[in-house]
Specification:
The protein has 409 residues and is an alpha/beta fold. It has 2 domains: 3-51 and 361-399, Urease, subunit C, domain 1 (Roll); 53-353, Metal-dependent hydrolases (TIM Barrel, Alpha-Beta Barrel), CATH 3.20.20. Helices cover 33% and strands 21% of the residues. The termini are far apart.
């Protein structure tokens, strides 16, 4: 063996006695108490140990640009045009540097796998794609990155975006997305994205149903196309702010429909809180759907970061545990079982959304291991407990010293 992580409370069985995790050649080869072997040892000291966190929805390409964008106009965020105005200034080197800054933070907070959504249009051409592809290769020592390409600024009225999507898919993008809110023909864009997914055999992950009221939702069409194309388990939608405006019975019925189709939902609490309710100046609606309710009706869900330091979300430190804590606060989640499910939306549920077959603390899987300064998943979410160590394929990538109080003698 090359490494033994001792005294680990597994997040999958936090009430069970601690175990040791043996690693050889980057993979888990043993999970049992009191392993005896000659190897490097990391003592988890009874802390919670989980597989690496999975970020299913983030925008590395347009992170860290808030300082170069025009300011908000009162309560009108104007986020999309403010970003669009600066995209022509993006260079490969610029995107790489900003994305690396964001990626470093993600890694420090325990993320070892990621799907980053990447905009393609005439304003940026393939420069962002080339930068993130280089970043994906250069950071493979710490994180596995999958690129989902999508048209932020329209598709049916933007033929260059369509051409760029095809080029990126030919060059290996693993998923294709959509943003029909910014297209005059919502259905046309959604149908085209499903056609591309079938042509290139990739997953679908869409920005869908952001808005302040339940009118004109696109989720029904997405469910129908998922079933027609037999893509159940390979389609996800992010945001779903409109779902939060539905009465309980209507939301339950919609959740059951989404679950039957095999569509997953990613909730993005930071961006949705920041962007929604801009039409109100008091008693502002939250715009964040109760993701626990969705899972309880059979939908696979994840909680993710989305935007970092740009006009859609000019805040953020890339901590997924902070996102889960924020989600729990906004939706008033306090029951330990539901908090534990929020933790699963950063780990095994997110891995299932991305169809990661080799994920988890199991013999034979890559040794992607996070040691969290907590004893249960619900404590980790409730207290935003930081990782104290992260391993990628058995190699330590992060060390964070536990805080120590120096009490007077």
């Amino acid at each position: 063996m090359d490494l033994i992580v001792r005294n680990a409370h597994l997040s999958s069985a936090p009430d069970a006695p601690p175990v040791d995790i043996g690693v050889a050649s980057g993979r888990i080869v043993a999970i049992e108490p009191h392993l005896t072997a000659t190897a490097e040892v990391f003592d988890a000291e009874g802390c919670l140990v989980c597989p690496g966190f999975v970020e299913t929805h983030i925008h590395l390409d347009k992170s860290c640009i808030i300082d170069r964008c025009a300011p908000e106009d009162g309560r009108n965020a104007n986020a999309m045009p403010r970003v669009a105005a600066v995209k022509p200034s993006f260079t490969v080197e610029d995107v790489y540097a900003r994305a690396a800054r964001t990626l470093d933070k993600c890694i420090k907070h325990g993320t070892t796998r990621m799907r980053t959504h990447l905009e393609l249009d005439a304003g940026v051409e393939m420069r962002s794609f080339e930068a993130i592809e280089a970043l994906r290769r250069d950071y493979s020592w710490a994180i596995d990155i999958e690129i989902c390409v999508f048209p932020q600024e329209g598709l049916t009225d933007n033929p260059r975006s369509d051409q760029l999507l095809v080029e990126a898919l030919k060059r290996g993008a693993k998923a294709v997305g959509a943003a029909p809110n910014y297209d005059p023909d919502h259905a046309g864009q959604i149908n085209r994205i499903f056609a591309l997914a079938r042509e290139f055999d990739v997953d679908v992950d869409m920005h869908l149903d952001s808005g302040n009221s339940p009118e004109q939702m696109d989720i029904q069409l997405v469910c129908e196309l998922t079933e027609q194309c037999k893509l159940g388990g390979r389609v996800a939608v992010g945001h779903g702010c409109k779902y939060s405006t539905l009465p309980p019975d209507d939301l339950a019925a919609l959740a059951q429909r989404i679950a039957r189709a095999g569509v997953a939902v990613t909730v993005l609490p930071a961006t949705d809180l920041f962007m929604m309710g801009r039409d109100q100046d008091h008693s502002v609606r939250r715009g964040v759907v109760d993701v626990n309710l969705l899972t309880e009706h059979g939908i696979n869900c994840s909680i993710s970061t989305n935007n970092v330091l740009n006009p859609f979300t000019p805040l953020g430190d890339c901590s997924l545990l902070r996102m889960a804590n924020l989600q729990a606060n906004v939706c008033q989640i306090g029951h330990p079982r539901r908090l534990r499910d929020c933790f699963a939306m950063l780990t095994e549920r997110s891995a299932r959304l991305m169809n990661l077959a080799d994920y988890g603390i199991r013999i034979g899987n890559p040794a992607d291991i996070v040691v969290v300064d907590a004893v249960t998943p619900e404590q980790a979410v409730a207290e935003i407990c930081p990782p104290v160590a992260v391993f990628k394929r058995g190699r330590r990538t992060v060390t964070r010293r536990r805080v120590e109080l120096h009490r007077p003698l």
